[in-house]
Structures are given as structure tokens and as C-alpha cells.
């Protein structure tokens, strides 16, 4: 049996190219680290792979939740404390340090193109999440929300943890900070808004909220929750936050919202059930 020498030559050239690429990569990352001594290059270790979809286009997205001892651990948290945290009005008070990598294009098992993201968390905390399904769902949620905030995404919460795959694609080195920034309280600006009752006199039929959101380019960055007597709006990432309570009872299912990109005004129309 003869061997095609051209194939061997191609494989050798490919291997040399890959080695050269890695050398250039480490050289570049090393130069970046010299320029910024408060950071270091880490190589994440595989953890778990989560499959979800982008909204509203329903494209496949994979989140590689990776682990590294270089990432600081979050404050100690018991299972009971986690349950209380998830049931609280403001679960964002508990921060999980993580490194969010850039999106990279990959191919899934069906040879279809998809997007993957690498999220790196502390290795010890990752092991805790692996042992308890509640912690696992929590870290997946935090990872998804972190990617949404950083890259202005909207991802489905109907995700699936792949059993036989710890990551999709290839895990790249990441440059993380080794020196903490000063702790600064996140500022949420309350946008200008107006509430209009229709008709102006007599029994109210509709309550309309007009909210001005300068700088918000798309409705994809808005999270709106309409309750019976409350409206809560957040424009990510941490641009605006609005929490309005009123004396009317709203039909939540029939309420509608429309965002005008030109005027940058969100109009929420809410049918009134009773006063």
C-alpha cells in the first residue's frame, strides 16, 4: 500500500501553521499583558456546555461554562441562602466574578453554523454548581444574563445542558484583570415618562405609559414587566431603570408595548380592568 506524500506534506504544513499561530497568539497576549500589568492570560478548563437559542431569530447559541483558579471565587453561599436570594426582589446584589469571552463561530453536530461563547468562573465554585442542580441552573442564568448585558443579546431561557459534551469548538485564552477595580455602585438612571388615562374623564379604559429612552437603539435591550398595578422596565446594560406603581388594575395579557427607534419612546398600552 502506497502513501500519498502530498497528504503528509499538507498535514505537516498544517501542523507547522498551527504551532506558528499559537506562538504568535502567546506573543501577542504577552505584549498585551506587558501593556496592562494589572491583567494576566489564562487558559480556561472545560466545564459544561449549554445549548440555547437567540431571540427572536431562533439561531443556535452555545455557552461554554468553563473553570479556572485564576478567576476569584464569589462570596460563600449556602443552598438555603441561594433559595432566599432567588426569591428576593433584588437578586443582583450577589455578584459572581466571571470572564466573558468574545463570540466565535462554530459548527454543530448537524454541520450547521452556530455561535459559541466562553464564560469562565472560579473552579471551586464550578464544582459546587456541578454537585447541586439548583446552583447549576443559577450559574447558567448568571452566565446568560452576563452575555446579554455585554453583547446586547436576548437569549432563550429554555436551555439544555449537553450531557456528553463539556464545550463546543475550541477554548481560547482569555485576558483577565488581576487587580480589582474600585468598587463603584452601579447607577441606574430613571427615564422621563408620562402616564395617560383614556378617556380623560369617566371610567378609565386604558392606561398608557410613554417612556423616553435616549441612547437605546433597539427594543432587544429592554426588559419590561407589566403587573396588575405595577410597571417595571430595565434598559440593559444598566442604562435605565423604572418602577411605577399605580392605583389601577391592569389586564396583563392584553397589554401591548411598542418601541419607536426614531423617537426612542416606548409606548405601553394597558387595558384597565377596574380602579
Short summary of the structure?
This protein has four helices and 16 strands. With 275 residues, the chain is of the alpha+beta class.
Q: What is the oligomeric state here? A: single chain
Shape label: elongated
Proportion of strand residues: 25-35%
Secondary-structure element order, N to C: HEEEHEEEHHEEEEEEEEEE
What does this 3D model show about the protein?
With 275 residues, this protein is an alpha+beta fold. It has four helices and 16 strands. The chain has helices at 5-35, 79-87, 123-131, 133-151; strands at residues 39-42, 45-53, 60-68, 99-100, 104-107, 113-122, 160-161, 174-177, 193-198, 206-212, 222-226, 230-235, 240-245, 249-250, 256-260, 265-274. The strands form four sheets. Strands 2, 3, 4, 5, 6 and 7 form a six-stranded mixed beta sheet that branches. The radius of gyration is 24 Å and the shape is elongated.
How are the SSEs ordered, and which strands pair?
Layout: H1 5-35, E1 39-42, E2 45-53, E3 60-68, H2 79-87, E4 99-100, E5 104-107, E6 113-122, H3 123-131, H4 133-151, E7 160-161, E8 174-177, E9 193-198, E10 206-212, E11 222-226, E12 230-235, E13 240-245, E14 249-250, E15 256-260, E16 265-274
Parallel strand pairs: 3-6
Antiparallel strand pairs: 1-8, 2-3, 2-7, 4-6, 5-6, 9-10, 10-16, 11-12, 12-13, 14-16, 15-16
Helix pairs in contact: 3-4
Amino acid at each position: 500500500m502506497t502513501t500519498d506524500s502530498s497528504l503528509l506534506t499538507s498535514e505537516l504544513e498544517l501542523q507547522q501553521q498551527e504551532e506558528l499561530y499559537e506562538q504568535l497568539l502567546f506573543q501577542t497576549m504577552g505584549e498585551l499583558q506587558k501593556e496592562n500589568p494589572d491583567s494576566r492570560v489564562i487558559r480556561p478548563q472545560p466545564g459544561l456546555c449549554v445549548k440555547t437559542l437567540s431571540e427572536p431569530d431562533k439561531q443556535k447559541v452555545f455557552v461554554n461554562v468553563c473553570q479556572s483558579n485564576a478567576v476569584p471565587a464569589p462570596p460563600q453561599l449556602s443552598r438555603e441562602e441561594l433559595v432566599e436570594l432567588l426569591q428576593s426582589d433584588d437578586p443582583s446584589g450577589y455578584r459572581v466574578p466571571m470572564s466573558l469571552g468574545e463570540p466565535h463561530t462554530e459548527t454543530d453536530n448537524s454541520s450547521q453554523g452556530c455561535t459559541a461563547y466562553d464564560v469562565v468562573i472560579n473552579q471551586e465554585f464550578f464544582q459546587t454548581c456541578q454537585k447541586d442542580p439548583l446552583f447549576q441552573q443559577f450559574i447558567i442564568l448568571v452566565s446568560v444574563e452576563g452575555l446579554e448585558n455585554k453583547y446586547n443579546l436576548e437569549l432563550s431561557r429554555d436551555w439544555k445542558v449537553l450531557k456528553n459534551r463539556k464545550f463546543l469548538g475550541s477554548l481560547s485564552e482569555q485576558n483577565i484583570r488581576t487587580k480589582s477595580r474600585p468598587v463603584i455602585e452601579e447607577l441606574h438612571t430613571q427615564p422621563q415618562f408620562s402616564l395617560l388615562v383614556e378617556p380623560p374623564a369617566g371610567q378609565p379604559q386604558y392606561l398608557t405609559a410613554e417612556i423616553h429612552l435616549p441612547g437605546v437603539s433597539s427594543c432587544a435591550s429592554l426588559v419590561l414587566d407589566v403587573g396588575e398595578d405595577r410597571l417595571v422596565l430595565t434598559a440593559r446594560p444598566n442604562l435605565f431603570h423604572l418602577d411605577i406603581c399605580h392605583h389601577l388594575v391592569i389586564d396583563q395579557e392584553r397589554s401591548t408595548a411598542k418601541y419607536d427607534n426614531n423617537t426612542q419612546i416606548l409606548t405601553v398600552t394597558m387595558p384597565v380592568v377596574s380602579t
